[in-house]
Every structure is written in structure tokens, then in C-alpha cells.
Design brief:
The chain has 3 helices and 2 strands; from the N terminus they run αβαβα. With 84 residues, it is an alpha+beta fold. The longest helix is centred in the middle third of the chain and has 10 residues. The radius of gyration is 14 Å and the shape is globular.
Length: 84
């Protein structure tokens, strides 16, 4: 599913994106590197892609926020649940 909405400011788009009970993934498309950094650090999602979508590094941890998941799978963070 893809949701497209209009916005006027970066703060407005962050508020709209984070105003959901879910947070599995998000994507940011822009030609400005500073805007990518600003948006991706404020979005509450398990994975945030920049100028691409659905690209995974199998060694990176994966998991969601809010009702989209608990904890992390994969990577070193995914192993901490099995270590005492």
C-alpha cells in the first residue's frame, strides 16, 4: 500500500507520518541530502529508506515501532534476546 499526502513543511510531514499506530517502514524521496538526514532521524519506523525502497542488508537489524513489532530481528541486536 502506498500513501501520498501533501505537506507544506518538514515538521508537518513528520507529524503526519508519525501520527499512526504503526511504524514498520517509511521512505523518503528527495534530492537534498540534508533533508534526508533531517527526516529519517525523526521518523518513528523500523526501517527508513532514502531514495529507494525495500532494499535490505541481511546483517542489519529489522523491526517495527508501535503496533508493528517488538524488538529487533537480525544483526547483533537480534541476538541479544538469546544471550545472558
Amino acid at each position: 500500500m502506498l500513501t501520498i499526502q501533501t505537506f507544506r513543511t518538514d515538521d508537518e510531514v513528520i507529524e503526519k507520518a508519525n501520527n499512526t499506530p504503526y511504524g514498520l517502514s517509511a521512505g523518503v524521496w528527495t534530492d537534498k541530502g540534508s533533508k534526508i538526514f533531517n527526516l529519517t532521524t525523526k521518523l518513528r519506523a523500523g526501517v527508513v529508506w532514502a531514495n529507494t525502497y525495500n532494499q535490505f542488508d541481511p546483517t542489519s537489524p529489522f523491526g517495527g515501532y508501535k503496533e508493528s513489532g517488538f524488538g529487533r530481528e537480525g544483526g547483533l541486536q537480534g541476538l541479544w534476546g538469546y544471550v545472558k
